Amino acid sequence: MSDDSGKKTGAGGIATGSTGGLRNIADLLPLPIFIRRVSGEVLFANGALRALDRHVAVEMLVAMLAPPLQPEERRILDGGGTVTTEEVAFAPEGRDRRYFRLTRTPLPDGEGAVPLELGLAQDVTAHKLSEASLLRHREALEELVSERTAELRELNRSLELRIADQQRVEEALRQSEQRFRRIVQQVSDYIYTVEVRDGKPIRTVHGPTCVAVTGYSSGEFARDPYLWLKMVPEEDRALVRSQAETVLQGKHAEPIEHRIVRKDGAVRWVRNTSVANLAHDGTVTSYDGVVKDITEQKRASLAREESENRYKRITQSVSDYIYTVYVEGGRAVRTVHSAACEAVTGYSLEEFEADPYLWVKMVHPDDFRKVQEHAERVLALPMPEAGSRGVEPLVHRIVRKDGELRWVRNTPVPHYDSEGRLISYDGLLSDITDQRRAELALEESETKYRRLVENASSIILQVDPSGIIRFANPYALDFLRVTEDELVGRPVIDVLASDTDRDRVASMLAHIHQVPELYRNMEGENLTGDGRRVWVAWTNTALFDAEGRPAGVMSVGNDITRRVQLEEELRALSHRDGLTRIPNRRFFDEIVAQECQRAYRNQTPLALIMIDIDHFKDFNDHYGHQAGDDALRAVAGALQEALRRPTDMVARYGGEEFVIVLPETTLKGAEQVARYVSRAVKALKIEHEASRVDSHLTVSMGVTATPTPARRRLRSLPPNAVPRIAPRQLVAEADSALYAAKEAGRNRAVARVLKV
After folding, report:
1. Is 522 helix (H, G, I), strand (E, B) or coil?
2. Backbone angles phi and psi of 556, in degrees to 5
3. Tell me: the pLDDT tens digits for 548-588?
4. Which residues lie across from 705 on neighbouring strands?
5. How confident is the model at residue 183, as a pLDDT?
């Protein structure tokens, strides 16, 4: 009987039926992986590790990534434990330094020794740099806010500090954007765009990462319009032209795989995916292409095909032979071997006839007992009923004449006389050594890569084409706080995707097999079993079966929740006024622009109130800047209290000026809000002896709103009857009305409909 225990999986395994099995999963993982002997010999390195520096030998790469173990670490590994190095610096010559989290796992042999170690490196460069940068900026902001509280003695100095603060925040955001842009540009895939006119390509623009795939820069492609076609070997050009013609006709073109010759002369395999961009009339205006270097995957695929063909030839060429055992009185009395016995055993027919016990001597000592019991079962077996299977074949080892150890399958076929007595049985002996070695190698390989997946410090999920989760590694279950039953067998959208991310996950599942590269890297908000919301950076790989049909998605995820939280805190700090803690001028500019767009799109009114504290300079001169700051904070709070709807917003516009945005509000409604504001400020009862208007602090206001057609006429108006309004128009009109209120004596509001 053949042992298939290595093909069953539980909570921590992946069911696979192919020779590649978990080795393919390891090559698909974007994490550098290696297997190394204690002596230092590297037995395996996946594509992600080799991609770290293709100009350096694999042994050197592994040595750079995983230095020799210290004695204490060696003892941990020998004891079956895992050694983790939180931060390994890796600096290939001529390239930026990178950081990895290295996990080294022992791979014991059957006798309990640890001859091998399994290494898994998780790239934490982006996380390390991003978190460090964000923490530095946050600390800088907190320090500035602390210093500012003590130093706000003079108004001009206060303004200078706030401006400097905003500039530093903007620079931090720009640096963050540049950093993530650099990360994207490090991807070894690149995008090109072909501009089309009258159905013909007129210009091609290649993305900056083209040099990583082709060796040529985007400038070289720009200087030679035919360089791309020159790179394609002659035998592949017809396929490339056919894809281009299909896209130019506005039709869907399947991704193609072909070869290119790099600038350095190396032949590489690429996957070329093209998507047409159509005008309103259906004509093609351009098309985008994604070129992915798949050389390693292609070589692995070709090697796998050759391996399968080789094993098929071996199986077909196995020499089988038949022997017959004659039985009398329930005992074997004579054995006759066929002439083909020499091809399997090395012994000739004459040698078997000369030594009746030669066959018994050939059986491997460790298998002798089970061979003997198998023969006894055959001899004791009564005549089986029709349809029964009798004694199952036995797989065991023999030692050939030349001393070579071989595996054989021994299949007995009994013969009975008319009274049901066993008189003989035939045995078919098949040499299955190569097949058995392949099975044992596959079992060993699957065991190694199962450990790799089970010990990975990343979420690993396998989802079938219908969106059902079919596998989750132990780290995924632990991170997501769920059991295997709560995750495996359920739709990924229902158990992981947040409300805001469901549509994006559904789109990925529907389209990733058509355009894999567009969905390879995704960041999203996910739900855990205990109700927490976490942010995960996903690397998604489309899976295909042997016939090229979609077979699902392999997703590898890493927790980026802390990074997202730091970015959100930084963004919130950049939108707040340091003194009053209400939105600042920058945030107001963003909101008023959005509301102008929304008012035009929905054909609804929009109002704005500009507010200025009367004679505030005199207040500061009379009471001091500390009292002035206290008054600004009190007025900001009163303005917020005066607003009745969550959609309304008050911001500090600058100095003693404030502004209120009132969506879906007419001029009449805005005037009512202005009255609320005036009463709220007066209710503060802040003394202002230096005021030439009142003995207490007062405000002047300029009110404006977009023109709104009469409600009774709305149904008969053509589309876009309410004109598009620019934010600067709205602000200028409110400022003009504010100036009129001051000219009229202050402590009042002047309202005007926006003139368009």
Report:
1. strand
2. -115, 125
3. 899 999 999 898 888 888 777 777 777 888 899 999 999 99
4. 607, 753
5. 46
What is each CA distance from 375 to 277, 352, 368, in whole angstroms?
73, 18, 11
Closest by CA position to 578, among listed 280, 151, 192: 151
Say if residues 307 and 300 touch (Cβ distance below 8 Å).
no
Q: How confident is the model at residue 303 (pLDDT cuts 50, 70, 90)?
A: confident
Lookup: tokens for 417: 């006389």
SS3 string of 24-35?
Answer: HHHHHCCCCEEE
Among 261, 181, 257, smallest CA distance to 215 is for: 261
- Rounded to whole angstroms, the Cα distance separating 317 from 312 reads 9
How is residue 66 annotated by DSSP? S
pTM of the model: 0.36
Beta-strand relationship, 699-705 and 749-753: parallel
d(CA 438, CA 18): 12
Locate 17 and state its tokens.
Answer: 């039926």
Residues 694-741 have pLDDT tens digits of 999 999 999 999 987 654 344 444 555 567 889 999 999 999 999 999
**76 three-class SS:** helix
Instruction: Please give the Cα distance from 529 to 538 (Å, whole number).
Output: 18
- Residues 151-206 have pLDDT tens digits of 555 655 656 666 666 677 667 656 655 654 554 444 457 888 999 998 889 888 88
Residue type for 704, please?
T
Longest Cα separation, the chain? 133
Which are the contacts of 287, defined by CB distance < 8 A and separation ≥ 6?
Answer: 193, 194, 196, 247, 248, 274, 275, 276, 277
80: helix, strand or coil:
coil
Non-local CB neighbours of 486 within 8 Å, separated by 6+ positions:
495, 529
Tokens of 236: 């592949």
The total of other beta-carbon atoms located within 10 Å of residue 211's CB is: 18
